[in-house]
Design a protein that fits this description.
The complex is a heterodimer of chains A (340) and B (276). With 340 residues, chain A is mainly α. Chain A is 74% helix and 0% strand. In chain A, helix 1 packs across helix 2. The longest helix of chain A has 35 residues. The radius of gyration of chain A is 20 Å and the shape is globular. The N and C termini of chain A lie close together (9 Å). The longest helix of chain B has 18 residues. A 6-stranded mixed β-sheet of chain B has the order 6-7-8-3-9-10, with helices on both faces. In chain B, strands 2-1-4-5 form a 4-stranded antiparallel β-sheet, covered by helices on one side. In chain B, helix 4 packs antiparallel against helix 5. Chain B has 276 residues and is of the alpha/beta class. Helices cover 33% and strands 25% of the residues of chain B. The chains are: A mainly alpha (340), B alpha/beta (276). Chain B: Keywords: ATP-binding, Cell membrane, Ion transport, Iron, Iron transport, Membrane, Nucleotide-binding, Transport. Chain B: One of its GO terms (biological process) is iron ion transport. Chain B: Belongs to the ABC transporter superfamily.
Amino acid sequence: MSVATEPVAVQHPIRAWSGLPALLAALVGVFLLHIAVGAKPLPIGTVIEALTSFNPDVFDHVIVQNLRLPRAVLAVVVGASLSLAGALMQGVTRNPLADPGLLGLTTGAAFAVVLAHSTFGFTAMAATPWIAMAGALGAAVLVFFISRMVPGGATPLSMTLAGAAVSAFLGTVISLIHLLNQDTFENLRVWLTGALAGRDITLLWYIGPPMLLALIGGILLAPRVTVLAMGDEVAQGLGVKTGVLKAQLLAVVVVLTAGAVALAGPLGFIGLVIPHVVRLYVGSDYRWIVPYAALVGAIYLVSVDIVARVAIPPREISTGIITALVGAPLFVHLVRRRTR
Amino acid sequence: MARGSDDRSHRLEAVAIEAGYAGTRVLNAVDLSPPDGQVTILIGPNGCGKSTLLKTMARILAPTRGNVLLDGKDIHTLNTKAVAASLGLLPQGPIAPEGLTVRELVAQGRFPHQSLLRQWTQKDEDAVNSAMSTAGITEFADRAVDTLSGGQRQRCWVAMVLAQETDLILLDEPTTFLDLKVQVDLMDLLTGLAHERGRTLVIVLHELSLAAAYADHLVMMKEGRIVASGTPDDIFTADRLKQVFGLDANVLRDPASGRLVCVPFGARRRLTEAAQ
């Protein structure tokens, strides 16, 4: 931490709901743009028409409804989920470097998919999301039970450490499997970077509702996260049942992260970087960080996916690569700014 | 001012409580009834259980035996958020999240008064402003808590508890690590709450002379038991300090304020003796 020689007044944060209309407008904007661009660019008017008065006989409408809309929706859901889950994790663990992958969820998902492909020869991409979901949940359970065995029980610290250990271990096993089995690597290298292309949208019908509930739950719980971030005893003194609250937040994070990984693979950086970007503008109250993080996360991933789709036509870059390519320098910039 | 108090009423009471951590019993059959509208100060050597008693009375820690009663009802069976509307707690050495502003911190004190349906209202806003003004931190309202000095920071936390607008306020060593002047200012602020606004305060303190100067009701603890309680005039004696703390000290009365002061004997006295 830097030593402040002279106390600096904090910039007055954006108050309350004032920034939300602009961000919502931005989200609608990039959402429509995302659908419009591609191998066959469509006018925004056609896109809106296809969304509002769909005509199955118009080829462009079919492109929008069947090919492009699902992917845009996916980007919104995944971006919002990862960013919100990251914000909650940072608040609960009081750790500014926390992200949704901290509990081993993303590595667990990746491990399960790699294992299924290499050992049992699962190559059907349709099964991948379900395997990923099972792997994420399995890792979460494993992390939880390991941290339960630590003296003092499942505290944010013990869970963070257990998550780091499980992630490191599973990550190494993934590398090992890759070394031993070249085919698995070839088949999965795109998925493992996190990608929105060619995803089975029907999955959203199953995973979407619980994820939506978790998103709403996370936003409703957000004011309590600020109270919790002031320490357990302060929170309990203010009438928060800290044990119950942590369990609820954990459930929200697990559903959102496991769902996002199942839908898009192990996408990095969003859950770590976006909450910090949001914090620069709305301050340190999670009441505002959480909803803004969800919105900005959605906008970010949709924008990044536009770049992924149009950067080097006719090919596509994996979305996860762009998120990290942009995310990494942004993060370095943030760290520099905070420690200067 | 009215000192000493056994005929007073008590909204908060500890009745024969035993409590501890992970199998180690810290409190043994402790009874405590802080008189309403007064300042009760708990003192005792490190590890005597005074913080544990405060936490148990604040329902942070469940007693293994006995009851803590709030308005005659077992506090652990009451809805914790409802309790928070009448009982505030400032734990020892709280840390604000980095970047949280003073106003945001103080606003958290309104948590027990809010719900999903009842969000921020003018009453909350008024309570926050009035708490900041009482604690003298209005001028820092938009500064980040972590950029303030120790004394200013502690006043922010006191303001947060004030914003909670509870009749009962429990504080665990609120003056630790502060300059003497800042300690005195803070104790003036806290005792003012009791004597001018009728709040009931229970404070754990380390500073013996400060405790003797500000307590209406002084409680001395040792090895998980209360060994003496009453007005400082009655119980703050050299014999008691020796008995409770193992401390050799003189207790003097300051002629100007009439307050009791504890002067420990230490190396200096031994030096003077040796010189003679």
